[in-house]
Predict the structure of BFD-like [2Fe-2S]-binding domain-containing protein.
Amino acid sequence: MWVCLCEQINDQALTVSYVQGLKTVKQLKQAKQLGSTCGKCIRLAKQKLAQLDSSLIQVSLLT
């Protein structure tokens, strides 16, 4: 699924970026130009980052 169509960033690329340390929208804006064209993707990117944070917390609680 596309997160940012303008910059061609899909959810897989967002996940890879998250694992590589880009954990905020600000970091993604600087490194990947997320939201730099129209900005409509910012809300979806925040939701996806929150899901990734939540998944990480659940995994760490299980281990």
